[in-house]
Sequence to fold (280 residues):
Amino acid sequence: MKWICPKCKYETRKDPRKGKQKAICPKCNASRGGLQMFDQCPCKNWFHPDHYGVKTCSKICRYKYQKKDGKKGKHYPHLQRAEIRNCKSCGKEFRAINDQNGKKGGTIIRKQIYCSLACYAKKNPPQKFECIKCGKSFIKRKDVSAFNRKHEVYKYCSRKCYTSDPNNWTRIQRNKDITPKEFKSPWYKALHHLIGKKLGKSKKCWGCGFESENSRQFQWANIDHEYTNKEKDWIRLCGRCHRYYDKGEQSVEWLRNVLKNQGNYLLERGRIKNNKLKNI
Fold:
């Protein structure tokens, strides 16, 4: 090792630090930066190490002068526990290292049957699908994305067809003018979610007066069961009152009290100007 001053090029072989982090040059008394340490590479080239433990001047020298008796680059057959199979596409033997057997905490069990991605592509060529919105035919590879694993085939050719289709649940969140005839079973949760965003989360049942800080105990119920987007057609009930109301077991006085509480709630939120009770 040697130390060189970057200012006056003073050079010494003795360690001038003496327990300090920086060494001051004794010739020019330059303390800025101090004396820089240089080490000699096995290729007999002097270099300035970036950090502690560097013994070579470059990666080429490191690979050239590293120890040859290490484990790096060696293969141990007794540690190769993956199963050997034949590829279904090319018939070549391969070691199935991408198996998922659930031993590491996963729930999916899947076996590798192809040796490479190229063999998988040859065995599963792209297929032709037809868009259910515009009828346009398009080509996609089946069972590639997570979307195809849930739905066996592609349904839409583009994002535009996906959002403009009336049978798509995302249209409920963007369009307010939807007729009740368009609502089917997939729209039930989406419509309740939209009403919850509009009216908020009341922590009181308008039927029996039950109160709780947990808003999950209350639900939005539709009055006339036509499931429209009008705010006056929805009431906030607990699970018990909601179940009895859908069965038709509640009285007229009970419903009149619910509508009164509904008007007070909408009046507080600024949705209506006057609390007028509906004629029942």
Summary: The two ends are 99 Å apart (CA to CA). The longest strand covers residues 36-40. The helical segments are 59-65, 117-123, 146-150, 159-164, 170-174, 187-199, 239-247, 252-268. Residues 144-152, 171-185 have pLDDT under 50 and may be disordered.
